[in-house]
Amino acid sequence: MESALPVILVLVKVLLVIVAILTFVAYLTLLERKVLGWLQVRLGPNRVGPWGLLQPLADGAKLLLKEEITVSGANRIIYLAAPLIVVTCALVPFAVIPFAKGLGLESIFGQAAAKFDLNTGVVADLNVGILFIFAISSLGVYGVVLGGWASNSKYSLLGAIRAGAQMISYELGLSLSVLGVLLLAGTLSLVGIVEAQDSVWKWYVFRQPLGFILFLIAGSAEIARTPFDLMECENELVAGYQTEYSSMKFGLFYLGEYAHLLFLSALMTTLYFGGWQGPILPPIFWFLAKTFFFVFVFVWIRGTYPRLRYDRVMTFGWKVLLPVGLLNVMATAFVYTFWRQYMS
Questions:
Q1: How many Å apart are CA 178 and CA 294, to the nearest integer?
Q2: 102 φ, ψ to 5°?
Q3: H-helix or E-strand containing 121?
Q4: What is the pTM of this model?
Q5: What is the DSSP string of 309-330?
Q6: What is the pLDDT of residues 98-157, one digit of tens each?
């Protein structure tokens, strides 16, 4: 029993994080619809439960009860596997996001929590955490591409091709925007990056403002949020790669999309806004407050800007984001080297 205790505690920790993420994702749909309603001077969902709070449960029940349809001529195995790939690649990177200093598990599990280092506010503190994130999150596009190809539909295939091209162009800009933070922090561990921002003026948004702007734009394109949602462009592709999906298979794609939104907001909080750092209030409060602020920003952008034309999206990725990202990395390296050599 003693040897199995660490495994049990890790599973409990993972289960708590997954339940919390899925709950947040479910209510992100309600939050987005409410905010869009306010921006468009209408009410939004307000019928299911008080203030519409049970709307996510009603939406989930509706998807579960809808008829399961598999398209004639589809590659059945890949068609079914694609949504699972998208959801898995959206949830796994949360394992290295540090959301607090501690979980308070010692009050539940006593000394065992401290003995097995399970009280840290992160599922797995990897010393190459940022590389792990890019490795896993970049695999998510395979689910989109495979789902579009396996659906045996020209609209789905066009959406999948767009997703692949867009991911390649904006992944480069996203990676370059983070390199400046890594140069300043001197570590690939997300916990180390947060600990390096131990005061407000050390937040990397002030030391890497250009990198933050690049990350915001490239990240929005990476998760295909408006104005970069070209792979599911309704007026051109019906629903893009999701066109031939129904019931919970469509629901899993939907879950992956909002999990990506929550993850990107959490990653921006971690890299540029000090993560859990903040005065007086508990660390988990500051992390959630900053994360949901960025969620609100992405919803605000969706309700404000129109969808861009596809050729302009690709041109912007290759001819603007990529060179500006390279310039930011070179400038950061130059200033950092000069400061280390002559000013310290």
A1: 17
A2: -155, 165
A3: strand 120-121
A4: 0.88
A5: PHHHHHHHIIIIIHHHHHHHHH
A6: 888 765 554 454 555 554 445 567 888 888 889 999 888 888 888 888 887 887 777 788
